[in-house]
Design brief:
428 residues; mainly alpha; two-stranded antiparallel ribbon; 17 helices; 2 strands; 68% helix; 2% strand; globular
């Protein structure tokens, strides 16, 4: 598009998308501004082209998204706080990032620039997060850094995000996206560039001490080694082991934190509300009491005290599990639709991977998008990541790139030898 975009609104929208991918790793506010600007300019371009009457190809995935939003709105209207609950649904606008990113990334150069800018930004903030762990200094927030453990040195990295768990989950997702691209990079220089981004993002995520993110990284790396590393599995496997040893040696608090997991999560006598088992128990009770429409978006926290266990002394605003959280605020039908659109996007990504025969740039991007989706879903089972708008907006961008990449693959041809131009002929 940058080459053939002579129409100013469309070109401006592309630059807004560049701004989103560069700013998203360190500023959610800037990311939302760039996202909104891209959407606005796309709409202006569509109106100028007089294509507003054309019927969009929604597909199964799009229909499921619309059904999810519709059911969530109905559940809000029948809740105890209909207006407040409807207002809480404002975050559903984030779904609009999917068509915006898809529309603009149908040009390979746009796709490449977005991912390069993203990798550069991720590496810079990852280094900042690692530095935070050892110094405890946060230039952006006045809130003091949280100690890694009471009896250990180091702090829980949070980058430019307010909460360390948001930082940990976001950078876990970023690390897998960059690893996928690195696995099929055009040349050695590009491979080193994206591998460095993967390594730094993964280490920064681990040093956030988010257990969900750490476990998700481990599981997704195993999936990568089994299904995507092919004959080159030894090098990434060795790198993973070495990185794990280095991180554990540099931060003994991580070792202690893992030793406490079983005690925290599985001990029925644990009296504090930090245990996921206790939170999930209260959420199940909430779903059983409101199985069809739930309690309404934004009302989970209001009902939590009613359904929590007597030994639970904390208050929570969501279920720390996305499927359970959706079932609690919008009912079991919404949770089934939620699972369905996840299955639809995973199916689409698998079909895309199957279609790209050669191990080229497109294949690497497809692997990265698939792994980013998988790691998000895994972490969402422990952290309710979909309820965190910073990470959710980036997931929408990832899914948008998947549709843009699908267009590129179909346009180039299934078996085209030049699918994914090399760095020598197309430098982003």
């Amino acid at each position: 598009m940058i080459n053939r975009l002579v129409r100013y609104p469309e070109k401006g929208a592309a630059y807004a998308l560049f701004g989103y991918f560069f700013s998203s790793p360190f500023s959610h506010a800037l990311g939302q501004i760039f996202c909104g600007l891209a959407l606005f300019l796309i709409i202006v371009q569509v109106i100028m082209d007089k294509k507003v009457t054309l019927k969009p190809k929604i597909g199964t995935f799009g229909i499921l998204i619309l059904l999810f939003i519709l059911w969530s709105a109905i559940s809000a209207l029948v809740s105890q706080r209909p207006l407040g609950s409807l207002f809480s649904l404002k975050e559903e606008w984030l779904f609009m990032m999917i068509p915006a990113a898809a529309y603009l990334s149908k040009d390979e150069k746009v796709l490449r620039i977005c991912l390069r800018l993203f990798a550069i930004s991720v590496m810079i903030i990852s280094l900042y997060g690692i530095w935070q762990h050892f110094t405890g200094i946060d230039f952006y927030h006045d809130l003091p850094m949280v100690k890694a453990a009471p009896d250990s040195y180091g702090y829980r990295a949070r980058g430019n995000f307010t909460h360390r768990m948001t930082f940990g989950n976001y950078y876990a997702l970023a690390s897998m996206l960059l690893l996928g691209i690195a696995s099929c990079a055009d040349n050695c220089k590009s491979r080193i560039f994206y591998c460095a981004g993967f390594a730094l993002a993964a280490i920064a995520s681990i040093l956030s001490f988010s257990r969900g993110a750490q476990l998700a990284i481990l599981i997704t790396l195993i999936i990568f080694l089994i299904f995507f590393a092919k004959k080159s599995w030894r090098l990434p496997a060795a790198a993973m082991i070495v990185a794990a040893v280095i991180v554990c040696m540099l931060s003994p608090a991580i070792q202690k934190r893992y030793k406490d997991i079983i005690t925290v999560e599985l001990n029925s006598d644990y009296k504090f509300g930090g245990s996921r088992m206790i939170i999930w128990e209260a959420s199940f009770n909430m779903v059983k009491a409101h199985p069809v429409f739930g309690v309404g978006q934004g009302n989970y926290g209001l009902f939590y005290d009613t359904f929590r266990a007597p030994r639970d002394d904390r208050h929570h605003g969501h279920a720390h599990n996305d499927i359970l959280n959706v079932a609690a605020y919008a009912g079991i039908p919404a949770a089934l639709i939620f699972i369905a659109f996840w299955a639809a996007i995973v199916y689409k990504l698998l079909k895309l991977l199957q279609k790209i025969k050669a191990r080229n740039y497109y294949k690497g991007v497809a692997i990265g998008l698939f792994m980013a989706t998988v790691i998000f879903f895994i972490s969402s089972l422990y952290e309710a990541t979909f309820a965190d708008e910073e990470i959710r907006l980036f997931l929408m961008a990832v899914w948008g790139l998947a549709f843009g990449l699908e267009y590129l693959v179909n346009e180039t041809g299934e078996n085209a030898e030049k699918m994914g131009m090399t760095e020598k002929t197309e430098k982003a």
